Amino acid sequence: MKPNLKIFDGLKHQEFVSLRPLIDETKAQVYIETYGCQMNVNDSEVVLSILQDAGYSLCDSIEKADLILVNTCSIRDNAEQRIHGRLDVFRIEKQKRPALIIGVIGCMAERMKEDLFNNRVVDIVAGPDAYRDLPRLVAAAKTGGKQINTILSHEETYADINPVRMDRNGVSAYISIMRGCNNVCSYCIVPYTRGAERSREPKSIIREAELLVANGYKEINLLGQNVDSYLWVNPDDPTDTVNFARLLEMVALIDPSVRVRFSTSHPKDMGNGVLYTMAMYGNICPHIHLPVQSGSSPVLERMNRKYTRESYLERVAMIRKIMPDCAITTDVIVGFCGETQQDYELTLSLFEEVRYDGAYMFYYSERPGTKASRSFKDDVSLEVKTERLNGIIALQNGISLENNRKCIGKEYEVLIEGTSKRCEEELVGRTPQNKTCVFPAKGHKIGEYVRVKVLSCTSATLLSEIV
Ligand code: 5AD
Ligand code: SF4
């Protein structure tokens, strides 16, 4: 597979553009708090870029802020409850300083719309496609009261905006390659909060990646709700298309010393083309996040996942055939509508069979307006949901520990991303398979690659030394 040269032409940007926040206490101060997924983290970086252009500077506490934005998540009820708790804290600050403007942005803004104004502390509500409008909304809120924009778009990808990187390590960065989602998984609120799927123009993705590399970043994470359905069609020439495998290759070719990761993959769409591209380039990390959601085909059918237990396991077998050293992680929901003990046991047995390197595990939380909330009864009791969740967590912890034990004695190339929370003389980084390593610094620094040997492990960490 050849990279699309048309897209590479003239795009070797080597200029230095600062991607870090410009801190200036003389300007109006914005404080941004982010909840939810990596996409939300990246959206907050887009929001900061828009607000910096409008004259704001980032600050690190609500007490200093003229504007507080909370970028929210609606995926489960407890995510929303946490945000209501934060709004209570902001209310106290606003009572002290009535000129303070408070905005709710992101998925909860889109889902709840005007209802958020019932909590009287909120001045602005802006959905995920309305961020360009924020400077206007803020200005209007200062004089004209409550402001809302929750219009969803079929085109917006924020392609021309350079996200201002709020992370502190300067090593690893996110790039959103698409927005929205066209899979209507019956449990999921995302298609309603983030709208229809749209792929971002590859040129702008490559430009952003090159800018990150020029700024010293060593790892690029390509983000989308379903990266495998990425498809860009040149509006001037419909024969000129770029799919995800091609895009991945184009990003990998920018610099062989820069790691490329991506998420999330959908089991129904992940084709072999992506796997062969991953196998071909040493800097595309061998790790696939492949959410299974359930190990029972009838439950998968009700979830509208469009694959079966068997076809999922075939995908896993293909990954391992093409890339034997590839790590696989997953998301799972227990206690979905109508899930029987037998269905649950099928999920456990699938976990036993796949032996994931890691899993995000949840119990089902009904979301208003979704297909599941309209069609099925949320009939598994909270007690059973909790029991099942604890059961699968215990199983996966054992599997993670066992998988990590297999790494003992082996050597890995690790990208150093920070210092250990427990000990300043120790560094933290990840293997290509995304496993976290902790090791004595021996004079090495954040942003360097080192070779480490694994000495021992927990279920979450490989304790290592530099070789
Ligand atoms: N309840 C519980 N978990 C959910 N997820 C998505 N929607 C729900 C819900 N209603 C989980 C899925 C998804 C992850 C991001 O969150 O596992 O992959
Ligand atoms: Fe991200 Fe989904 Fe939460 Fe929205 S609802 S922030 S898309 S995890």
Explained architecture:
- This protein has 467 residues and is of the alpha/beta class.
- It has four domains: 28-149, Rossmann fold (3-Layer(aba) Sandwich); 167-285, Transcription Regulator spoIIAA; 318-406, Transcription Regulator spoIIAA (2-Layer Sandwich); 411-466, Nucleic acid-binding proteins (OB fold (Dihydrolipoamide Acetyltransferase, E2P)), CATH 2.40.50.140.
- It contains 14 helices and 21 strands.
- The chain has helices at 5-8, 38-53, 77-96, 107-112, 134-144, 190-194, 202-214, 244-252, 272-280, 297-303, 309-322, 341-354, 371-375, 382-405, and strands spanning 28-34, 56-58, 67-72, 101-106, 124-126, 147-149, 172-176, 178-179, 198-199, 219-223, 231-233, 241-243, 259-263, 287-289, 327-334, 358-363, 411-419, 426-430, 436-440, 449-457, 461-466.
- The strands form six sheets. The chain has a six-stranded parallel sheet with strand order 2-1-3-4-5-6, sandwiched between helices.
- α12 runs parallel beside α14 (382-405).
- The radius of gyration is 23 Å and the shape is globular.
- 44% of the residues are buried.
- Mean pLDDT is 95; it is low at 1-15.
- It binds 5'-deoxyadenosine and iron/sulfur cluster.
- Residues 36-37, 39-40, 73-75, 106-107, 189-190, 193-194 line the site of iron/sulfur cluster (SF4).
- Residues 36-37, 39-40, 73-75, 106-107, 189-190, 193-194 line the site of iron/sulfur cluster.
Helicity level: 25-40%
Report how far the terminal alpha carbons are from each other.
Answer: 36 Å
- Residue-averaged pLDDT, rounded? 95
Structural class call reads alpha/beta
Strand line-up across the major sheet: 2-1-3-4-5-6
Sheet of most strands: 6 strands, parallel
Number of helices: 14
- The unreliable regions are 1-15
Total number of domains: 4
Bound molecules: 5'-deoxyadenosine, iron/sulfur cluster
Percentage of β-strand residues: 15-25%
The beta-strand count equals: 21
> In the CATH hierarchy, what is the superfamily of the largest domain?
Response regulator
The outline comes out as globular
Q: At the third CATH level, what is the topology name of the largest domain? A: Rossmann fold
Task: Identify the CATH architecture of the largest domain.
Answer: 3-Layer(aba) Sandwich
CATH class (first level) name of the largest domain: Alpha Beta
